[in-house]
From TrEMBL:
GO terms for molecular function: nuclear import signal receptor activity. InterPro entries: Hikeshi-like_C, Hikeshi-like_N, OPI10. One of its GO terms (biological process) is protein import into nucleus. Belongs to the OPI10 family. Residues 18-128 form the Hikeshi-like N-terminal domain. Signal peptide: none annotated. Residues 140-191 form the Hikeshi-like C-terminal domain. GO terms for cellular component: cytosol; nucleus. It comes from Ficus carica. This is Hikeshi-like domain-containing protein. It comes from the Eukaryota.
Length: 195
């Protein structure tokens, strides 16, 4: 039905590496795969196998679950998108992540897990959040970090006039020039915004 690869960490694995919960739900226990360092596994490539035909209104949704946390939606593959490399946004252990909650929870044990898991589920395509939820989150994080960088730069030049902050008129030009120069000098500078 499907296969997965953890880039730079595994050979291709088929559905037999997962425990089947019921007809439409599978779980991979990360403890058996990488032990406690599950959070170092940052990406998964999931793909439909050639001889499996998923109905056009269905998707194979991928979720992650840290110990003591609910499942968090990562993305999905469909007949129109038969493979995808998805980021794995592991929630804080014991915390509550944002995003869609896997319906495997009803099918699996109700107790909170002792190890991290990856869940795969056949679901209605229309019921899923954006298939690129992780990409949207990365874009949001980059925008927030750039905005924070601008705010910190502006704050260092601010004056106070009553209840208003006053900044020089050319503050955006100065910030952007400094931002570009720093990016040219230090290739890792921009990478820090994408984390």
């Amino acid at each position: 039905m499907f296969g997965v690869v953890f880039p730079d960490r595994s050979f291709p694995m088929d559905i037999s590496a997962f425990s089947q919960i019921d007809t439409f739900h599978w779980i991979l226990d990360m403890n058996t795969f990488v032990g406690d360092s599950y959070d170092q596994v940052r990406e998964i490539c999931i793909f439909l196998l050639n001889n499996f035909s998923l109905p056009p209104d269905k998707a194979l949704a991928v979720y992650v679950q840290s110990p003591g946390s609910p499942f968090v939606f990562c993305g999905a593959v469909t007949l129109a998108r038969p493979s995808a490399v998805l980021s794995l946004p592991w929630p804080e252990p014991g915390g509550f992540g944002a995003g869609g909650q896997l319906q495997i929870a009803a099918a699996a044990d109700a107790a909170l897990p002792a190890s991290a898991k990856i869940g795969v589920s056949v679901e209605e395509l229309a019921a899923l959040p954006s298939l690129d939820a992780a990409a949207e989150k990365r874009i949001e994080n980059v925008a927030m970090k750039v905005g924070e960088n601008l705010f910190n730069f502006m704050q260092s030049f601010c004056g106070v006039d009553g209840s208003k902050l006053v900044v020089p008129m050319d503050i955006l030009d100065r910030w952007f020039k400094k931002f570009q120069e720093k990016a040219k000098r230090d290739p890792d500078f921009l990478k820090g915004f994408a984390l």
